[in-house]
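Board work, copied verbatim: Peroxisomal trans-2-enoyl-CoA reductase
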Amino acid sequence: MLDGQVAIVTGGGSGIGRATALELAGHGATVVICGRRQEPLDETGALEPHGRIAGITCDIREEDQVDALVDEVLARHGRINILVNNAGGQFLSPAEDITPKGFRTVVRLNLEGTWLMTHAVATKAFIPSGNGGRVVSVTLTPHTGLAGMAHSSAARAGVENLMKVLAIEWARFGIKLSAVAPGVVATETFMTKYPAAFRDHYTESVLAGELVTPEQVAQTIAFVVSPAGRAISGSVINVDHGHDVSQVRYPPREIATERGSIEQEARRT
Ligand SMILES: CCCCCCCCCCC/C=C/C(=O)SCCNC(=O)CCNC(=O)[C@H](O)C(C)(C)COP(=O)(O)OP(=O)(O)OC[C@H]1O[C@@H](n2cnc3c(N)ncnc32)[C@H](O)[C@@H]1OP(=O)(O)O
Ligand SMILES: NC(=O)C1=CN([C@@H]2O[C@H](COP(=O)(O)OP(=O)(O)OC[C@H]3O[C@@H](n4cnc5c(N)ncnc54)[C@H](OP(=O)(O)O)[C@@H]3O)[C@@H](O)[C@H]2O)C=CC1
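↓ predict structure ↓
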């Protein structure tokens, strides 16, 4: 499906980024992954049997490192067809305790880093090639407001709108941009980084009763960048078992009937 395509996946050394790199490579793409540390990148590369994944260290918040990464990929492969902006994250904190530096740190990573990568790949590769390209940015649900993550909620809203604006402006270059917004994903980071009570609550109370897997997010990204996803641009695609529309399990345990539903209202006589 992706034979001959060259992809960059940011944050490809772990979690969703690793699963995405493996998924794209499995469909024939040559994949360059980046992150701040070399070791996780090498671990991802070792999981791919055909040598289609290589890692290059890059902090996506640093303009000179982003430029160097894109130049290196072009020098090695001569083209870039796909960019997956997956690197991101945040720390959990009540909004009133987030310092200016902490807010800036999260916005720089999620919004500015995504902009730097997207702009560099578009201007150095997609536009000069005349062939356009595909961009998918990984964001977050719920879109109704992610309590405890004010900085990240704001940044991800910015990323989703950025994808929409660029989908309009860069349609003339054949560039398609979308966001894929996962719900709660069972990555090692999610399972180990957050306080146990927070993790356990959201693990147990998600609507579907199960977490999203990294592979499910990766398969959606692969579909969007595949020939079958050619008409997708300016979209936000949730991969979240309905987390965006209902943040609690249905029905609430307290009022569940034996049939696992809610009691039906009696008809008026
Ligand atoms: C109704 C609501 C329903 C909600 C349902 C929610 C369900 C759960 C959804 C969960 C979804 C999301 C999951 C995920 O995203 S999992 C993947 C997460 N992955 C990551 O976060 C990886 C990347 N993250 C990082 O690298 C770091 O977290 C960070 C973003 C902070 C960047 O790290 P960096 O090394 O650059 O930054 P520093 O550590 O130097 O910190 C810089 C300043 O940031 C502030 N800070 C950092 N950590 C904290 C903290 N724990 N508490 C408070 N402030 C923090 C601080 O100002 C740092 O500066 P100082 O060290 O000088 O103080
Ligand atoms: N897990 C979840 O429940 C959900 C996750 N998401 C989002 O999906 C994405 C991936 O999450 P997940 O796989 O769980 O998280 P991970 O923490 O496993 O992945 C984050 C990756 O990004 C890399 N990274 C972090 N900062 C930078 C940077 N400045 N420059 C380059 N690379 C960087 C990290 O590598 P290194 O440290 O070596 O730089 C790491 O490989 C994130 O944007 C996350 O917020 C969205 C919804 C839910």
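The two ends are 60 Å apart (CA to CA).
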